[in-house]
């Protein structure tokens, strides 16, 4: 399947999803890769990982970017080349990107704001390891299946905050905590208390097939 769907987070922020059903050869033939990406692809041993990487490039092409517009910093955080400086239209703002892949899905989110996203398959294991990354009292009184979903959302929120901030030393259980929210709300707020600075972010989440998608905005 080619492009799967998009989710509008707000007027400046859209997430794009690719559901990978293509053979790796097809994906490889249909994306333009720069030399760095070809070298990176060669280091990946799993076919699933390679396909996820190529599907991200398909999504970039889908929204009018190329692989060469994507740059990574020393920590592995992706950035888009800033085209606003050269643009005649001064209303064009620098664009931010965040990337996630999980099994047969790849996802990119593009925004005028700083963002972090995560896509995570619903699975029991996330609930089992929940005490390692969250306050499990936030799962009280839920059905077993809702506990899995909520733990997955909270995991995704913490991964997304981590991706947005991109700072070494952030601990999921010690520095990131979500305010109480209901699954029906599909949104909430999350606090980061790190290096004696307190920050609050908004998050939204949605469901894509059997996956939980989370986006955190600055
Ligand atoms: C880097 C990290 C966020 C990636 O998340 P993941 O769930 O393994 O994988 P995802 O598919 O969701 O995300 C991968 C993408 O994140 C992006 N990414 C990698 N490092 C990043 C960083 N430092 N900041 C922002 N984005 C980053 C990349 O775009 C990457 O995909 P690409 O290299 O193919 O472009 C994760 O491995 C990590 O280090 N998390 C924090 C670890 C931690 O504190 N865990 C605590 C558990 S209690």
UniProtKB/TrEMBL annotation:
Record domain 4'-phosphopantetheinyl transferase: where: 114-196
A UniProt-annotated Pfam family: ACPS
Database matches in SUPFAM superfamilies: 4'-phosphopantetheinyl transferase (SSF56214)
Keywords of this entry: Transferase
Superkingdom per UniProt: Bacteria
Transferase among keywords: yes
InterPro entries hit by this protein: 4-PPantetheinyl_Trfase_dom, 4-PPantetheinyl_Trfase_dom_sf
UniProt KW Transferase keyword: yes
GO MF annotation: an example: transferase activity
Protein name: 4'-phosphopantetheinyl transferase superfamily protein
Source taxonomy: Bacteria, Pseudomonadati, Bacteroidota, Flavobacteriia, Flavobacteriales
